[in-house]
Specification:
With about 70 residues, the protein is mainly alpha-helical. The chain has one domain.
């Protein structure tokens, strides 16, 4: 699911695979009631369409402490 999305970002957004440090993805059933914390305006518009969509958020890597599945045990 993620590889075609990443491939679509090349070469305009991602020039080299080494630029990508973290990738995560999820699929949600939008027919259920979902709550989003601080949704971006783009996400709000996409949710209003009531159609399947792909939402990509690009930013600086999170600190390991902020990622639930990474960190000291």
């Amino acid at each position: 699911m993620l590889k075609p999305i990443l491939d679509g970002l090349w070469p305009d957004i991602i020039v080299d695979d080494r630029q990508v440090q973290d990738v995560s993805g999820s699929r949600r059933d939008l027919t259920k009631t979902l709550a989003f914390r601080n949704p971006s305006p783009q996400l709000v518009r996409a949710l209003a369409w009531n159609q399947p969509f792909v939402y990509v958020q690009i930013g600086v890597p999170r600190d390991e402490e902020e990622v639930l599945w990474i960190g000291a045990q």
